[in-house]
Amino acid sequence: MDPIRNQRGALPASPSGPRGLAWVRTPRQARSQETLDRILDAAEALVAEKGFEDTTISDIVARAGSSVGAFYTRFRDKEGLLYALYERYLAQATATARAALDPARWAEADVATILDATLRFLVAIFRQQAGLIRAFVLRNHVDPEFRARQERLSHYVSARLANLLLARADQIGHPDPERAAAFGFTMMFSTLESAILFGELRSDDLALGDEALASELTRAYLAYLGVAGAATETSTRMRPPRKEKPA
Fold first, then answer.
1. N or C of the chain: less Cβ packing under 10 Å?
2. CA distances for 148 relative to 90, 137, 190, 213, angstroms
3. What is the CATH number of the domain that holds 30?
């Protein structure tokens, strides 16, 4: 059996994250669409492994157990495939945000608990899907349609997280909690892109593992929001060992 698929051609489910958060995969299409699903699954796995530019159509159809003819029946070229991957990613990301940021899930949680779990989950998603998300981010810089769709997704996720935080505005010390919730999310998301997708935090002092990265992002967000005491507690719990500098 192909290691990227189970018996129905689906990618293995993502492991559950903190508080049971998990990536939501959209339902499979009718059986007549099975070949399309297999091609998309194969492309997604290959892009994750070696990036979009280095993934060839031959690689994709071989992994999918399909043919070049079947590929061109469904896509005009690799660019058409990228759009299809993006459409599926957006549907899954929207469903994931809806489930992960459902207020009922967090009814008894404070701001620190929400951000700690959410940021650890985001770090895990970025790490697991780094190749795919990197391809999308790069396309956003040159394709206004891609960028517009990504901005809609970002606004959707940011708004749902902000609603959770603002329902606990009494815990937030920032003079403008609404702005702080939105701007803080933008800062965290940009850092995830820089650190995980493009490896831009390369200095020894900033070479953090994923757990430490999630912890520091949580601490920074909490400090910016002005949540009293929570930032210090979070950073102490997950503080990485300091590296000794040579004399």
1. C
2. 12, 12, 17, 28
3. 1.10.10.60
